[in-house]
Amino acid sequence: HFNSHSGLPAKLINGGIAGIVGVTCVFPIDLVKTRLQNQRQGQQIYKNMMDCLVKTVRSEGYFGMYRGAAVNLTLVTPEKAIKLAANDFFRQHLSKNEKGLTVFKEMLAGCGAGMCQVVITTPMEMLKIQLQDAGRLAAQQRKPASMSPTKLAATRVLSRSYNAGPSTATSALSATQIARELLRTQGIPGLYKGLWATLMRDVPFSMVYFPLFAHLNQLGQPSQDESAPFYWAFFSGCLAGSTAAVAVNPCDVVKTRLQSLNKGASEESYNGVVDCVSKIMRKEGPSAFLKGAGCRALVIAPLFGIAQVMYFIGIGEFILDLSPFN
């Protein structure tokens, strides 16, 4: 297995399959993460991760946990593709004259990869967050009249005009409808709301993840010319992923808040990253920046563990070998 030398198409297939498998496995936890991050003090509907999962299933059914997964599944492959291709591209360019890459250069490559990927990540998560959070807003509106697990369908809420507040109950919207509405009212910038926060999250993430993974994976190599066993790749991917995820969680909280168009009653809105950070600090204290950190670690760890295993197995190479183009 000379993973590092496999061509880009194979890598893209690996990344795509890994992304689809990964998202399917961990999407419910990601939904919980969004809801926990959006909760304000005094209006907590969900106590913690398990509580949120249970309540979501109870009021929205099992498929309720996958609200927004379609956007994610559609876009996760191109997102991974851009990230991997960019990381590869920068690594090649940075290692032109020397043999290996210094940690600094690995970080630079990761940084470049993170910057390229936000082109897809930002609109994808923007849409995903609206869909994931709709159920929380609906539950919040029902809260005074005791949380009866009535069928939510009647009160699926996404207010039509984004500033009118939660007044009009509409049927559950689809990602395409939200995207259309955003484009109609705000143009392209509407889809790229929270771009800076996404950069602040994904660039440092890539800078931590890629070098950390490379070094963890090296520890598992029996000798210089042998690659580490596949469970080691999985473990390294998980550990590097969750470390990086928790490290950038404050940026993720800011991003979730900025990208949520619909606020519940008495949830303030923010103009930009700085405003958001200062308001969260003032009103909720520093601990708020770790909201959903456990969820995020749990989401990211298997995502990246699975991805590393797919590269290791080389499923993309296998598929390409079967294809008639070779």
From TrEMBL:
Catalytic activity line of the entry: L-glutamate(in) + H(+)(in) = L-glutamate(out) + H(+)(out)
Keywords: Membrane, Mitochondrion, Mitochondrion inner membrane, Repeat, Transmembrane, Transmembrane helix, Transport
GO BP of this protein: malate-aspartate shuttle
Solcar repeats: 6-93, 101-219, 228-317
Molecular functions per Gene Ontology: L-aspartate transmembrane transporter activity; L-glutamate transmembrane transporter activity
Membrane-spanning residues: 12-32, 297-320
Compartment(s) where it occurs, according to its Swiss-Prot or TrEMBL record: Mitochondrion inner membrane
Keyword Membrane found: yes
GO CC annotations, alphabetized: mitochondrial inner membrane
Its membrane topology: Multi-pass membrane protein
Record flagged with keyword Aminoacyl-tRNA synthetase: no
Family: Belongs to the mitochondrial carrier (TC 2.A.29) family.
Function as written in the Swiss-Prot or TrEMBL entry: Mitochondrial glutamate/H(+) symporter. Responsible for the transport of glutamate from the cytosol into the mitochondrial matrix with the concomitant import of a proton. Plays a role in the control of glucose-stimulated insulin secretion.
Annotated PANTHER family: MITOCHONDRIAL 2-OXODICARBOXYLATE CARRIER 1-RELATED, SOLUTE CARRIER FAMILY 25 (MITOCHONDRIAL CARRIER: GLUTAMATE), MEMBER 22-RELATED
Official protein name in the record: Mitochondrial glutamate carrier 1
Originating species: Oncorhynchus mykiss
